[in-house]
Each structure stands twice: as structure tokens, then as C-alpha cells.
Amino acid sequence: MADDLNVDVKNLQQEILLKNDGYGVAAFDRMLDPLYRGALSNPDGYARVTGPCGDTMEIFLKFKGDRIEAAAFETDGCGSSAVCGSFAAEMALGKTPDELLDVTGDAILERMGGAPEKEQHCAFLAGETLQEALSNYMIKMTSGGERR
Predict the structure, then answer these.
(1) Which pTM was predicted?
(2) Any idea which architecture 23-142 has in CATH?
């Protein structure tokens, strides 16, 4: 019985995916379960950016040595903002500051497998917020600030 229900749910999800208007499979799956959502206490890098659509994204970064050990996001925006924030946090994990420069809106869209044109700005908001969090971290490090 449970197996039949799981098959029915998967079939329904696939049907919805086929009608999703431009989201890639990875993005659709993430809509069902946005990972890395929530604030990190005492982040080494932090940013809060409001996009032109009015959505606000926050990114939290924690470093261990020269690599990102933990990353998280918060948003007050739509589902697309949540998906993009989730991918931005995931893509940051394990990266050095130099490698993090490659996590842009375009890179997030590629990792998502695409998004409808009217929602693509959310990926750029997530990328910009991630870069601002990196900038916040770098300013702390160059001004003699200590990581917690």
C-alpha cells in the first residue's frame, strides 16, 4: 500500500514538473525540500540584500581554515528566491574565497537546470547576496577582525 502511494506521489510530481514552465528538475526537487534554510549564529561572513522585486535574501557563511564549512540562507521572498538561496548556500560549501567568486547568478541558474525568465532575477539576487557575504568576510579579515 505504501509503495503504491509513493508511486502515485512520484507520478504526480512528474506531471507537475512537466507543467512547471521552465524550472529544471534540480530546481523542482529543491522546491519540495529547500536545503540550508535558516540563520547561522556568529557567521564569519553575512549579507542582507533586497532585490528590485522586493525580495530580501540573507546569506550566512562560516569558515574553517580557508574553506566554507557551513552556509545558510533566509529569504522573505517567493519560492524561486528560496530555491536560489538554497542552491547558493550549497554551492558555497567547501569553497575558498577565490572559488566562491565563481558562484554567480548564471552559475546558480545552470546548477538549477534553469528557471522561467520572470524568476531568473532570484538567482542573481542569491549570487549578489553570496558575494556581499564574502565581501563582509574579507573586510573582517583584512581589518584585523577575528573569526568566531
Answers:
(1) 0.82
(2) Alpha-Beta Complex (3.90)
